[in-house]
Design brief:
The structure holds 2 protein chains of 2 kinds. Chain A is an all-alpha fold. Chain A contains 12 helices and no strands. Chain A is globular, with a radius of gyration of 20 Å. Chain B is α/β, with parallel strands linked by helices. In chain B, strand 7, helix 6 and strand 8 form a beta-alpha-beta unit. Chain B is globular, with a radius of gyration of 24 Å. The chains are: A mainly alpha, B alpha/beta. At the A-B interface, helix 7 and helix 8 of A face helix 2 and helix 3 of B.
Chain lengths: 306, 505
């Protein structure tokens, strides 16, 4: 055992990378749930995003086009959820589970010829001056653009929900869809847009795994990150910055336990492997002990009956 | 003759199986308070939804100041100066007052300016309100102020109010009426929907009466007696429940020092509740909704258990017993929420009859159900209480509110309870059915049952109860004999104006 082998700077830098897929998926789902829709299909949308992004960037050679394709792929799959829940008024829980199962199977089919292929690399942005600062530079300012996009999305979602009329209407729809309808807001339309946004974010998160974090394609490679994202939204009390905190905590412990395993710490591997889940949940449960609760219309089907 | 503000001509709207409005025509003049009267299901709500653009009429026209008016959506109606205060407040609990008001406006100013305007308008009309409070924490009267101010900020020409007083204490009603009178004096027309006839007689200039979707008559409320208006609404002579003078027996139910926290987050905890009900006595429990009514029912039914001694039935402590054990002893309850609490919506009436009747009616045998006996019990309820349904195999959900209410009350009454607790027994029920439910409760009391009737309808409580107590923030006032009790005294027992300031306008 040699803890000295763990480089703290690399550790912190890589926790941000490990956290980004989770963060992207969670911020999308947070918007969906704020609009009053519970989409359990995050895992399915992520994996479809992962293979869509992987395939397009391999075919075109451009990781940027890959990420765009991933967002579109996730959004297209979420359209299926829209059809089921907003038009056929099907149960949201069952539809979300179906979406995940369908996404996992469909992505395996799409990805058959991509196993073992290496995708083009995106390359990191070295922000001038800032990235040269010792310690802080490599940690904060030498990452790929999508990681920064993730943080920017958190800030944008937070500001939109809090300060803009669009955000107010979105919260109103999630809080009391009957009242929002009575005031003349288009509940279904707003929810569809939110679901599509959630799908696009989940797709980006999936592609981040297949294009940057891993980077290769294997079946089922999202490995439950979508489910963690769902739990994260709840434990973060539907607050964007808290979701970021939770994602970094989870990412950090994931990276740390891998380092500890490599360093040969005398704790059974199984305990180390489960530690990110346990600690993230514990911390967020403690944080979520405040009053803020779920959007009141979450998971309820809206039908405009006059 | 001057052009009326709004003229409705031959409005018709049909839904599958029912004509909600059939050729309804009437005019609302400038600065007039116009009452729209009718039973539940008479088509009042559909009519105002057409004016507000939520529903499109099948045929007929509307004229606003002589111009054709057909709002495709509420936004358009609002732009033409129509504002509406809903019966079930269309507010968002988790948002604050200013955010709620911004949602009801087309082009709201920045939050800071809006908050200042809310303060200004609320002061002008004597409705003080803090723009930054969360709506979930407001009382019913204050919530209604939010809705009214939301409407006033748009400077409406016509204000539609759908049963605005059903959730208010008498003092709060007075404040509301002062505001409405001030609006009228400024030239705003008001379409006032209610079935509380005395209010309409005090407030309104003109009334239109709807029955089964048709306009069956108009009158000047101040010159028409409440009874005449009621009979126009119902279309037949009203039976007033009869109360025979009777002696009370010994104490059947004794609640003392009962304090329980509420099981739900926005609920009200019960604080040190004392009451006794004697055999043959009807105790009316009044109070504005959300002051502990649901919790009181839960505690009496056994859904919330308490210290054993807090509730005694014939001297026996039953506080720790669950609902089934209490039913066995003879303490029966009928909760307020018909679909989901009193009845399982998707189960048949037979199955619903079994759910509460199995213990006392012997509908179970070692865990096996006796369907034949259950079916005849359900049929007995249907015939005894005139429940309009094709048969007991129909789902509870398929019944109209009033019919289902007759069924759930009848189900308990026919089990010969020793103590019966009912919450809002005639809520949303038409006048004729309400009268028969009240009569059934009085008949039961005459046979020696102790009855607790929790209700927000003060007229109902005055009609059937022998003594009256009010719930206010989870505390129960000392019960008083109903004879000689004045509306003012009742209002004070209910907590007066809930700390709201009286309008000085």
């Amino acid at each position: 055992m040699d803890l000295g082998e763990i480089n703290p700077v690399l550790l912190v830098a890589s926790l941000m990378v490990a956290a980004t897929p989770l963060l992207l998926a969670a911020i999308g789902e947070l918007v969906v749930e704020k609009a009053g829709v519970l989409n359990l299909g995050v895992e399915g949308m992520m994996i479809v995003g992962a293979i869509s992004g992987f395939a397009i960037s391999v075919e075109t050679g451009s990781p940027w086009l890959g990420f765009i394709a991933a967002a579109i792929g996730g959004a297209v799959l979420s359209l299926l959820f829209v059809l089921l829940t907003q038009f056929a008024l099907a149960n949201q829980v069952a539809s979300g589970l179906a979406l995940t199962l369908f996404g996992l199977g469909f992505s395996a089919l799409m990805g058959q010829s991509y196993v073992g292929v290496k995708p083009p690399s995106m390359g990191d942005i070295h922000i001038p001056l800032l990235s040269d600062i010792p310690v802080i530079g490599p940690i904060l300012f030498q990452h790929d653009p999508i990681l920064y996009l993730g943080i920017a999305l958190v800030a944008a979602v937070w500001a939109t929900l809090r300060y803009t009329r669009v955000g107010l209407i979105l919260r109103a729809v999630g809080e009391n869809h009957d009242a929002a309808h009575a005031l003349g807001y288009k509940v279904i339309k707003i929810r569809i847009l939110a679901i599509l946004f959630g799908g696009a974010c989940a797709g980006l998160g999936g592609a981040y795994i297949s294009l940057i974090r891993v980077p290769q394609w294997t079946e089922g490679m999202t490995a439950g990150v979508g489910w963690i994202a769902l739990a994260l939204v709840v434990f973060a009390s539907w607050k964007p910055w808290r979701a970021l905190l939770g994602a970094y905590l989870f990412g950090g412990i994931t990276v740390l336990q891998l380092n500890l395993q490599a360093a040969g710490v005398a704790i059974p591997v199984e305990y180390l492997a489960m530690s990110p889940y346990i600690i993230t949940i514990l911390v967020l449960v403690i944080l979520s002990a405040d009053k803020s609760s779920a959007p009141a219309s979450l998971g309820r089907t809206f039908h405009a009956s006059h | 003759m001057t052009t009326p503000l709004l003229s409705l001509q031959g409005l018709t709207k049909a839904y599958p199986g029912v004509v909600a409005n059939d050729q309804v025509s009437f005019d609302i003049g400038e600065g007039e308070v116009h009452a729209l009267l009718g039973e539940n299901g008479a088509g009042k709500s559909t009519l105002v939804k057409m004016i507000y653009g939520l529903v499109k009429p099948d045929s007929g026209t509307m004229l606003l100041r002589g111009q054709a008016f057909a709002p495709p959506e509420p936004r358009a109606a609002r732009a033409d100066g129509i504002a509406m205060v809903f019966q079930h407040f269309s507010l968002f609990d988790a948002l604050n007052v200013a955010e709620n008001i911004a949602l009801g406006m087309e082009n709201p100013p920045a939050m800071g300016d809006l908050a200042a305007r809310i303060r200004e308008v609320s002061e002008t009309y004597g409705l003080p309100l803090d723009p930054y409070r969360t709506v979930g924490d407001l009382s019913a009267g204050e919530r209604q102020r939010v809705e009214i101010i939301r409407c006033l900020l748009q400077d409406p020409k016509l204000l539609i109010m759908d049963e605005p007083t059903s959730v208010l204490t008498p003092q709060e009603v007075d404040i509301l009426f002062e505001t409405l009178n001030k609006l009228r004096s400024e030239g705003t027309s008001i379409l006032y929907i209610s079935h509380k006839l005395e209010e309409i007689r005090t407030l309104c200039d003109h009334a239109t009466i709807l029955r089964l979707g048709k306009n069956v008559g108009e009158c000047v409320p101040a010159e028409t007696s409440a009874r005449d208006m009621a009979e126009m609404m119902v279309g037949s002579t009203l039976q007033t429940p009869e109360r025979s003078g009777r002696e009370f027996g010994e104490v059947a139910l004794d609640v003392s020092g009962l304090s329980v926290p509420s099981p739900s987050e926005f609920g009200t905890a019960l604080k040190n509740v004392h009451m006794t009900v004697r055999k043959g006595e009807v105790l009316g429990v009044g109070g504005v909704a959300g002051n502990g009514q649901d919790e009181l029912l839960g505690v009496l039914s056994g859904e919330i258990t308490t210290a054993p001694d807090a509730i005694k039935f014939n001297g026996q402590p039953i506080g720790k017993l669950g609902p089934t054990a209490r039913r066995k002893l003879g303490v029966l309850t009928a909760p307020e929420e018909r679909l989901g609490h009193a009845a399982a919506p998707d189960m048949s009436l037979t199955e619903n009859a079994l759910l509460t009747g199995s213990v006392r009616e012997g509908l179970e045998n070692n865990g096996f159900l006796k369907w034949a006996e259950t079916k005849s019990f359900a049929e007995k309820i249907i015939s005894a209480f005139d429940v309009r349904t094709p048969g007991p195999e129909n789902a509870a959900r398929s019944l109209s509110g009033g019919n289902l209410q007759k069924f759930v009350i009848g189900r308990e009454v026919l089990q010969n309870p020793d103590v019966l607790v009912v919450n809002q027994p005639t809520w949303g029920v038409d006048a004729a059915a309400a009268a028969s439910i009240r009569q059934a409760i009085l008949d039961l009391a005459a046979k020696g049952t102790a009855v607790i009737c929790i209700s927000q309808d003060l007229d109902e409580l005055m009609e059937i109860s022998d003594s009256f107590a009010a719930l206010n923030e989870g505390r129960l006032s000392a019960p008083r004999t109903t004879t000689g009790l004045t509306v003012d005294e009742i209002g004070l027992m209910m907590g007066g104006a809930h700390g709201m300031e009286v309008a000085h306008v």
